[in-house]
Amino acid sequence: AVVSTQSTGTIEKKHSNMSTGIEGSDSEYIKLVASDGHEFYVLRKFADVSPTIAAMLSGPGTHSEKNESIVTLSRMSSHVLDRICSYFAYKDCFTDTPLAIPEFPVAPEVALELIVAAQFLNC
Description:
Blueprint: E1 2-4, E2 29-33, E3 39-43, H1 44-47, H2 51-58, H3 63-67, E4 70-72, H4 78-94, H5 111-121
Parallel strand pairs: 2-4
Antiparallel strand pairs: 1-3, 2-3
Protein backbone atom coordinates (compact mmCIF):
# COMPACT_ATOMS: atom_id res chain seq x y z
CA ALA A 1 0.00 0.00 0.00
CA VAL A 2 3.02 2.28 0.34
CA VAL A 3 5.43 2.49 -2.56
CA SER A 4 8.74 4.29 -2.47
CA THR A 5 10.72 5.27 -5.55
CA GLN A 6 14.11 4.77 -3.93
CA SER A 7 15.53 1.64 -2.38
CA THR A 8 16.90 2.50 1.05
CA GLY A 9 16.40 -0.48 3.31
CA THR A 10 13.20 -0.22 5.32
CA ILE A 11 11.91 2.71 3.30
CA GLU A 12 11.15 0.61 0.22
CA LYS A 13 7.71 -0.94 0.30
CA LYS A 14 5.91 -2.25 -2.74
CA HIS A 15 2.34 -2.67 -3.87
CA SER A 16 1.86 -4.29 -7.23
CA ASN A 17 -1.51 -2.81 -8.21
CA MET A 18 -1.03 0.90 -8.97
CA SER A 19 -3.10 0.83 -12.15
CA THR A 20 -5.11 3.99 -11.42
CA GLY A 21 -2.06 6.22 -11.03
CA ILE A 22 -1.98 9.53 -9.22
CA GLU A 23 -3.53 11.82 -11.83
CA GLY A 24 -6.69 13.68 -10.83
CA SER A 25 -8.66 14.26 -7.68
CA ASP A 26 -10.27 10.81 -7.82
CA SER A 27 -7.01 8.86 -8.07
CA GLU A 28 -6.51 5.87 -5.81
CA TYR A 29 -2.94 6.88 -4.92
CA ILE A 30 -1.24 10.14 -4.03
CA LYS A 31 2.43 11.05 -4.06
CA LEU A 32 4.06 12.52 -0.96
CA VAL A 33 7.46 14.14 -1.53
CA ALA A 34 9.94 14.54 1.33
CA SER A 35 12.40 17.40 1.76
CA ASP A 36 15.21 15.33 0.22
CA GLY A 37 13.11 14.55 -2.89
CA HIS A 38 12.23 11.00 -1.85
CA GLU A 39 8.76 10.11 -3.15
CA PHE A 40 6.16 7.93 -1.44
CA TYR A 41 3.06 6.68 -3.23
CA VAL A 42 0.30 5.93 -0.75
CA LEU A 43 -3.34 5.02 -1.00
CA ARG A 44 -5.43 8.18 -0.82
CA LYS A 45 -7.62 6.58 1.87
CA PHE A 46 -4.50 6.10 4.04
CA ALA A 47 -3.38 9.72 3.63
CA ASP A 48 -6.89 10.99 4.40
CA VAL A 49 -6.07 10.12 8.03
CA SER A 50 -4.34 13.51 7.97
CA PRO A 51 -6.79 16.43 7.73
CA THR A 52 -3.82 18.57 6.61
CA ILE A 53 -3.08 16.36 3.60
CA ALA A 54 -6.79 15.99 2.80
CA ALA A 55 -7.16 19.79 2.82
CA MET A 56 -4.09 20.21 0.60
CA LEU A 57 -5.60 17.82 -1.93
CA SER A 58 -9.12 19.24 -1.91
CA GLY A 59 -8.79 22.93 -1.11
CA PRO A 60 -7.31 25.76 -3.10
CA GLY A 61 -3.69 24.84 -3.67
CA THR A 62 -1.01 24.39 -6.24
CA HIS A 63 -1.63 22.65 -9.54
CA SER A 64 0.37 19.60 -8.50
CA GLU A 65 -1.54 19.17 -5.25
CA LYS A 66 -5.00 19.45 -6.72
CA ASN A 67 -4.68 18.05 -10.25
CA GLU A 68 -1.82 15.62 -9.94
CA SER A 69 -2.35 14.45 -6.34
CA ILE A 70 1.18 15.38 -5.29
CA VAL A 71 1.90 16.87 -1.88
CA THR A 72 5.38 18.22 -1.21
CA LEU A 73 6.30 18.24 2.46
CA SER A 74 9.40 20.42 2.22
CA ARG A 75 10.16 20.34 5.95
CA MET A 76 9.80 16.60 6.43
CA SER A 77 12.73 14.22 5.87
CA SER A 78 12.25 10.86 4.16
CA HIS A 79 12.96 8.81 7.29
CA VAL A 80 10.17 10.67 9.12
CA LEU A 81 7.79 10.53 6.15
CA ASP A 82 8.43 6.79 5.91
CA ARG A 83 7.23 6.33 9.51
CA ILE A 84 4.25 8.62 8.87
CA CYS A 85 3.23 6.51 5.86
CA SER A 86 3.63 3.38 7.95
CA TYR A 87 1.39 4.95 10.58
CA PHE A 88 -1.26 5.69 7.94
CA ALA A 89 -1.34 1.98 7.02
CA TYR A 90 -1.31 0.98 10.72
CA LYS A 91 -4.21 3.31 11.49
CA ASP A 92 -6.24 1.98 8.55
CA CYS A 93 -5.57 -1.62 9.61
CA PHE A 94 -6.50 -1.21 13.26
CA THR A 95 -9.34 1.33 13.17
CA ASP A 96 -12.62 -0.28 14.25
CA THR A 97 -11.03 -3.66 14.89
CA PRO A 98 -12.17 -5.83 17.78
CA LEU A 99 -8.62 -7.18 18.12
CA ALA A 100 -6.06 -5.93 20.60
CA ILE A 101 -4.19 -3.08 18.94
CA PRO A 102 -0.42 -3.57 18.98
CA GLU A 103 1.85 -0.70 19.89
CA PHE A 104 3.10 1.37 16.95
CA PRO A 105 6.90 1.18 17.26
CA VAL A 106 8.82 4.46 17.33
CA ALA A 107 12.59 4.59 17.64
CA PRO A 108 13.70 7.08 20.32
CA GLU A 109 16.05 8.86 17.91
CA VAL A 110 13.13 9.92 15.64
CA ALA A 111 10.46 10.41 18.31
CA LEU A 112 10.74 14.20 18.48
CA GLU A 113 10.68 14.62 14.70
CA LEU A 114 7.64 12.33 14.51
CA ILE A 115 5.81 14.36 17.14
CA VAL A 116 6.43 17.57 15.20
CA ALA A 117 5.32 15.91 11.91
CA ALA A 118 2.23 14.38 13.52
CA GLN A 119 1.28 17.76 14.96
CA PHE A 120 1.67 19.42 11.54
CA LEU A 121 -0.33 16.67 9.82
CA ASN A 122 -2.88 16.57 12.67
CA CYS A 123 -2.78 12.78 12.93
